[in-house]
Structures are given as structure tokens and as C-alpha cells.
Amino acid sequence: MAEEAILGYLENNELISDSGKFAAERGLDHNDVVNVIKSLHGFRYVDAQDIKRETWVLTDEGKKYAAEGSPEVQLFLAVPAEGSISKDELQKKLDPSVFKIGCSQAGKNKWVEMGKQVSRKVQNVEDKVKDLLLHVQNGHALEKDGISTLKARKLIVPQTWKGYSVSKGPNYAPKRKKVATDLTRENLQRGDWKELEFKDYNFNAKGQPAEGGHLHPLLKVRKQLKDIFLQMGFEEMPTNNFVESSFWNFDALFQPQQHPARDSHDTFFLEEPSTTRELPEDYVERVKSVHESGGYGSRGYGYDWKREEANKNLLRTHTTAVSSRMLKALAEKPFAPKKYFSIDRVFRNEAVDRTHLAEFHQIEGLVCDRGLTLGDLIGVLHDFFSRLGMSKLRFKPAYNPYTEPSMEIFSYHEGLGKWVEIGNSGMFRPEMLLPMGLPEDVRVIAWGLSLERPTMILYGIDNIRDLFGHKVDLGLIKRNPICRIGI
Ligand code: PHE
């Protein structure tokens, strides 16, 4: 509509001098006209010159009086034509602001006699203010006096009106040509591509905001931990086998076969393939015998060790299964000290709640060298955790079948204002290390913790299901900063 009007008008006329007038005369919306002018200008159908005018618009108060009458007239009309009304009575009839302004203006105009009683001094009044306001509202210009009255009473404010004057541009045509945006197969087949005019690419157009590519908080904390281990000179262990035999997950760790953790209530056993194909036979013999009757200074557990139990495949319940394989491999070569770490997934048949999942990630670190002591373990833990920003540590005696002594690790959490358990640690037992064939004076200090725990603390997440699993809160992952400054 607006486009036809503008191009049509310019066919026979030189100039549209004022887009505002042009729109008003034709009953067009000025905003539509402006948009069309901008678009036609972009394609150089028209030339356009800005015009600006200072105009006045009504404030909210001005709009109210334009509709309801000025306060002084409202007040005047509330005073009876004959006799008088008490000031209190009058006040009750009017809006508080109308009463206040009305009193002062009607008094100034000498329309009413103000005292305890209020009475009219004139018979009729004209609502000049309302008339002026309606005038402005209808887009008409005002005399200077009128403007200063309304401005002083804050009933109008200035506004810059923007429009255009428009003339023919270099590409002027009475009708806009359709430009092609795409070259189609049909264009090629028909050969009309030769005549087609193509729309230019707009290289300044803003693209869609890039979505995706968010790092999961677990990945970010894992990277941070991995860097810490590498800085401390640790090597990463291969953790790419989720399926493990009970032998490496439990037996090699001197965990007795009737231990409750080996129950299907706690561990996921595999149905297919349900058993492992091979185990190192001579080592199996030594493990069997240390469980049954001990050795290396130990009495063993004194039970009938069953090979079938050791053969059962499971989803590894801890990455200590990986540590046991690595230590066994180490024992096969001339001894050299090692520092190993891993961060990967483990599985437990747990009831899922806000702090537990059936699969989670475990961080595992171990140092293997001659003559290590519990003091070394405590020192390494202080070094490791202080690099994570946890420098206040406490230890509590604990029990693991494969470590002696064992210690739970607690850290003081400044934010929560309390000690929180962050991991488990210990020195691997001789019953585990000596059957592997490690030299007698070799000690292994080790610790483990979940990756989820520090991540939840660092990111202030209180439900593990928001972090990991099928109910994960994608919004939370997107909102997370790319990096955190400090801990
Ligand atoms: N494997 C232990 C766990 O599952 C962690 C641990 C690792 C404890 C090494 C002591 C030594 O919690």
C-alpha cells in the first residue's frame, strides 16, 4: 500500500516534501511509510532526506485532563451554582491531586472564593487547558503562550518527530522489480537465470547466535584435576575397560569373596559374557592362597576361595581395579618407582538419590616406591588437595580390605562452614602387593574420590541428578562460566 503510493506519486511528481503529511493525507500509518522509504532507499529506488521537527506530546497527566477536564474546572463544577460548600465536603468529592491543583488554579483564576466555605464567583468557566491539550493531542501546532502554560504544568513534553523528504533515486521504477534470492534448478533448466537480477548478499547481517559447544562441568573439573596430576608428575592409567573381572576388581585387592560389596545388590554383574576368558594362572594361585591361608606374615581369611566367583564379569566398582592391573604389570619388570592417576567412570548398584548415582566418576591417585610411609601419603594428599583450593584437611581412620592403614579425608569447606568428606585413602596391604611379585620394601600409597563431589561443591549444585544422567539440567550446563576464577 505505502510502497505503491510512494512510487506512484513520484512517477508524476518531483518530491514528497514531508512523509508525515504524505501519510496523513492518505490515511497511512507513518511508521509503515518510513519503513517502506528505508527499504526503497536501500535499493536506491528513492533518495531520502531526514527531516526532524520538535513537537509536543501529552504526559500521562496531560492525557488524563484531556479526557476528564482540567482540575480547576472539575473543582469549579463540584461547587454548587448557588450558596456554598464546606472545604472538607468539597475535598471528599474530588481526587486528592485534582482537589489540590484545582484549588490553587481556580483560586488564581478568581473562579471561586476559598475559605472554610467555598462558593462560585463567576457563573460559567471555559476549560482552556483541556482545549489546548486536545489541540496538541490532535497534532496541531500551539501558540507560544499555550505551550508555556502546558509545559509549566508538566502536561506536555517535547518530542523529536522524524520523517523524510523523498525524491526519485537512480534505480527509480514505478514498481519494484522482484529480485531473486536463490538460483534454482528450474532457473538453470529454463535458462531464465540470464535475465534474473539477484539480490546482493548482505555481509553486514548478523548471524544466528551460536548455540551449543558447552563444556560439561565434570569435564572442566576433570581437566583441572588432570593438570594437577600432570604438574605433580603423575602418569595417566588406561581406564578404557568398564567391564572387569571380579578377580581384578576384588580378589587381587584382597577383598574376600563373601564381602557384601561383592553382592549383586551392590555390584552390576554381566549376564553376557558372564565370565572372564583368562586370568594369569600362577598369580591366581598366589591370590587364592593368600585369601585362604595368608602368607607374607598374614593369616589370610581362612575360607574356601572359589575360582568361579573370581571369573564373574562385572562393571568395575572402582578404578582401583585399574590400579591393581597396573601394579601387577609393574611387578613383572625390574622395579622402578611410579606415580599413576586416573579419572574415569565406575558403577555401583545403588539406590539413586540426590547425592548418589549408579554410575559416577572416580579420581584415583597412587605412588609406588620403596620405603614410603603414612607421612608420605599425608604429605601427597596435602599437596594434591591444596592445589584444588582445599588446604585444611583432616583424616579419620577407616577400613578398606586392600589398605592398612586406611584414612577417610575431610576438608573444611569455607562456604558451607563445615568439614566435608572428600575421599578415601590408604597404604595397599602386603597381602595385595606381595603376591603380585613387587619387592618386599615397596610401598604403595593411594587415594580415591569421586569427581562429582568436588564438582558439585565448586559449582554450587546440590542435586547430583542436575549434573549427570538423563535428568541433567541443560540450562545449568549452558549457564556455567567457561572458567571459574578462584575456587
Ligand atoms: N577404591 C576406593 C573407593 O572406592 C578409593 C580408594 C582408592 C581407597 C585407593 C584407598 C586407596 O572409594
Secondary structure elements and pairings:
Elements: H1 2-12, E1 15-16, H2 19-26, H3 30-42, E2 46-58, H4 60-68, H5 71-78, E3 85-86, H6 87-93, H7 96-108, E4 112-113, E5 117-120, H8 128-137, H9 144-152, E6 156-168, H10 185-190, H11 217-231, E7 235-236, E8 243-245, H12 246-249, H13 281-293, H14 307-311, E9 313-315, H15 320-331, E10 338-347, E11 359-370, H16 374-387, E12 393-400, E13 403-413, E14 418-428, H17 430-436, E15 442-450, H18 452-459, H19 464-467, H20 474-479
Parallel strand pairs: 7-10
Antiparallel strand pairs: 1-6, 2-6, 3-5, 4-5, 8-9, 10-11, 11-15, 12-13, 13-14, 14-15
The structure holds phenylalanine (PHE).
Organism: Melia azedarach
Keywords: Ligase
Protein name: Phenylalanine--tRNA ligase
Entry keywords:
487 residues, alpha+beta, 20 helices, binds phenylalanine
Mean pLDDT: 92
Distance from N terminus to C terminus (CA atoms, Å) equals: 62 Å
| Chemical compounds bound to the protein | phenylalanine
Strand-pairing-aware structural class = alpha+beta
Major sheet: size, sense and barrel closure? 7 strands, mixed
In short:
The chain has 487 residues and is an alpha+beta fold. The protein contains 20 helices and 15 strands.
